Amino acid sequence: MIDVHAVTIDYGQGEQTVRAVENVSFHLDKGKSLALIGPSGCGKTSLLFALSGLLYPRSGRITMGGEEVNTPRRDVALILQNAGLLPWKTVWQNANLSLLLNGEFPQQNAAEVLAHLGLDSVMKRFPAELSEGMKRRVGIARALSTSPSVLLMDEPLASLDTLTREKIQDLFLNLWHEHGFSLILVTHNIEEAAFLGQRIIVFTDRPARISAIVDNPQMGALDYRERSPFQAVMSQLREALEA
Question: What's the whole-model pTM score?
Answer without folding.
Answer: 0.88
